[in-house]
Structures are given as C-alpha cells and as structure tokens.
C-alpha cells in the first residue's frame, strides 16, 4: 500500500494552487526546467507515445520572438514571466514508437491512419502539458496556463520544418499573489458531474 501524500502536498499541487497572472522577479533555472520535465515524462501516454514537444521560452531573444504572436491580454504578463513553456505536439509521434514501445509494432497502428494518429497526438500531448503543470507545482513553482496566441505564427516561428504544432502555453515561475490573482472560481461538486455506475 502506498501512503497518501500529505495534506500540505495536496494543497500545493491542487487545493491551494492557482493560475498566476504575475510572477516574482525570481529566476527559474535550467536545472529546474529539466527537473520538471524529468518528472512529467514519467506519467502515462497511449503506447508510451510521448508526443509533447516543449520549448521553454526564457531568453530575451526568444521572448521577443514570442511577444508579437500573443493576444493583447496575454502579452505583458507572458513577457514578464520568468519562463513560458510552449507545449506542442508531434503529429508524427508514431515514428518514435519503435524506441518508446519496442515490444509491439505500435508504429503500424498509427502510420497511414491520420484520424487515429491526430486524436492520439492531441489527447496525449495535452495530457503531457497537464503533467508538466503538476510537476512544476510539485517542485515549488507556480503556473499560468493559457491559450490566447496565434498558433500558426508560433508554429512558423518555433517549429518550422517539423511535424510539431503548438497546443497551449504555460507561464512558469514564483507566483506573485499580491498582483492580478483573481478569487478562485467555483468548481462543480462530485454529484453535479460524476456518477458511480
């Protein structure tokens, strides 16, 4: 039997965690970004497909490239964040399945089947982005996930000549609770959206 996480850990990852719009002027190191990924990569995906591809936008040059591609409401807060993760999906993920899922010919399940490969790529790449948020929170960082950018232009700027397509962004850093933190919005109760059959 595995022990439950402590109440403090559950608060940090879920109950007290918030979507931050402002961050303290504190660096997030490359080592921290690697640690976030190294946790997130261990979570499950279909056939271990692991289609997420992530660009951690940290340098001023990369921020200058991303800035004009953001919606007006997201530009200032994103450029001020220590790091912005562009969570993208490799839509030819199945080419790596001989390495990632070597005990079966999983590539043949997806190659030549665009409907299955597209939905599998999108679903699992999105899952991996969510895992990234949980990993960052578990390591003491805060996140601000969002849409609100020009996907096509981001793909051209950051993923040209690849099979990667951007999905969503995550601002990462140490949240500033004194600025732009909205009251927590309501959540559905269990009986409103769940049933046990």
Automatic annotation (TrEMBL):
Q: Which Pfam families match?
A: Nitroreductase
* CDD domains (UniProt xref): RutE-like (cd02148)
Enzyme Commission code(s) on record: 1.-.-.-
Domain of life (superkingdom): Bacteria
Q: Which cofactor does it need?
A: FMN
Domain Nitroreductase: residue ranges: 17-174
UniProt keyword annotation of Flavoprotein present? yes
Keyword Iron applies: no
Please provide the record's keywords in A-Z order: Flavoprotein, FMN, NAD, NADP, Oxidoreductase
* Gene Ontology molecular function terms on file: oxidoreductase activity
Q: Which family does it belong to?
A: Belongs to the nitroreductase family. HadB/RutE subfamily.
- Protein's name according to its UniProt entry: Putative NADH dehydrogenase/NAD(P)H nitroreductase B1806_06610
Organism of this sequence: Metallibacterium scheffleri
